[in-house]
Specification:
Blueprint: H1 14-22, E1 29-33, H2 37-51, H3 57-60, E2 61-65, H4 72-79, E3 95-100, H5 107-118, E4 124-129, H6 138-145, E5 148-151, H7 157-170, E6 174-175, H8 177-187, H9 191-205, E7 210-211, H10 213-219, H11 228-236, H12 240-253, H13 257-280, H14 285-291, H15 303-307, H16 312-330, H17 336-347
């Protein structure tokens, strides 16, 4: 009698991983796929909090992106090194190594990762992230099979609304329905941008329990002629001078402006790319705006006409510049103002302009 076929390995979701970590169930190898970077990073922060003694962070924690220069042998060497310890810990795992965007790695590097994951060091937790892996490749299948695999899906609009309510509740606040809708319309469904706005709103209302529409209007600090809509419009028209002027206004008036500006630019670049794809598919204008959920057509009626001015190469290079800017700001490698000005110059085609300070 033929043996039973091996059961297909379960792919977990964000909530599944979160529940396991709440129980302090920690694996030696994780593979996080999917587009939702914010939730991946949230789980990684939870792992870091559970595993890493703050006094030993420089010795036992490594956060590496494949966009940086590195050697896979060195990374696996770090993963295989015993962690530095002080005192007694309830966790045998005391080292955390995070390697992001492994879908950009060459084949030999991923084969090396698959080999490590098949027999990991029991004192290390290795976290690998990717947007999507080609499971026709043997080494990618081995990565999935020998790790705890979770897929992080982008949240739909109704799920984003609930997520905002949950974020407010976590801070012992509530938020009105119209305030939720306004936040999504202004910021889009980028969870990083929304989390930043929620942090500002929570601090702004102080001891009050409910976030209202009026709070959003005050906190987001959009002044006449210098709104996020205007920054997106200037980027779309490749208007370097105005984009830099509006950026200056946002950064000068808002202490959280750098992340808000980055989120605003990222959302517009994504909208331009999606618009071009839908135009190539022959979609009509009204259908395109319907597909770009959360986009106000009244303020963006120029988008479809101007999107074609961005070549595929410009968009590819634009997303690369955006990723670089995101890393520089979050890791504090350069002043946010300089990083964002450079990003705008790159997106607008490096047209001659003097950055306004």
């Amino acid at each position: 009698m033929a043996g039973k076929m091996a059961a297909k390995k379960e792919t977990l979701k964000y909530q599944d991983i979160k529940r396991r970590l709440d129980k302090k169930e920690i694996a030696n190898c994780y593979l996080f796929t999917g587009e939702e970077v914010f939730l991946k990073d949230k789980i990684i922060k939870s792992l870091k909090k559970l595993l890493i003694n703050e006094a030993l962070e420089d010795f036992n924690f490594n956060d590496i992106s494949t966009s940086e220069e590195f050697n896979i042998s060195e990374i696996l060497g770090i993963a295989g090194t015993l962690p530095l310890s002080i005192g007694v810990s309830e966790n045998k795992i005391r080292r955390l190594v995070v390697l992001k965007d492994i879908d950009d790695l060459v084949e030999n590097d991923r084969e090396a990762l698959a080999s490590y994951v098949s027999k990991p060091v029991d004192t290390t937790c290795l976290v690998l992230t990717a947007e999507k892996l080609d499971l026709r490749k043997k080494y990618n299948n081995e990565l999935v099979s020998n790790s705890t695999h979770a897929h992080f899906y982008r949240l739909y609009d109704n799920a984003v609304s609930q997520w905002l309510k949950d974020e407010a509740s976590n801070n012992k606040k509530s938020i009105s329905a119209d305030a939720v809708q306004c936040l999504i319309e202004e910021t889009g469904n980028d969870l990083y941008g929304l989390a930043n706005e929620m942090a500002k709103l929570t601090a702004f209302i102080g001891e009050r329990e409910k976030i209202e529409m009026s709070d959003i209007r005050q906190v987001m600090c959009y002044v006449k002629d210098n709104t996020a809509f205007d920054l997106q419009k200037a980027i779309t028209y490749k208007d370097t001078e105005n984009a830099l002027r509006i950026l200056k206004s946002i950064l000068d008036e808002n202490s959280y402006g750098s992340m808000m500006a980055l989120s605003t630019i990222a959302l517009r670049l994504k909208q331009i790319a999606l618009t071009k794809i839908m135009l190539k598919q022959g979609m009509q204008e009204k259908d395109i705006f319907q597909s770009l959920k959360g986009l106000n057509q009244f303020y963006n009626n120029y988008l479809i006409k101007e999107a074609v001015n961005f070549s595929d190469r410009e968009l590819t290079e634009g997303f690369s510049s955006l990723l670089k800017a995101d890393i520089e700001i979050k890791k504090g490698r350069k002043p946010p103002r300089l990083t964002l000005e450079t990003l705008i110059l790159n997106l607008c085609g490096n047209k001659p302009a003097v950055a306004v300070r």
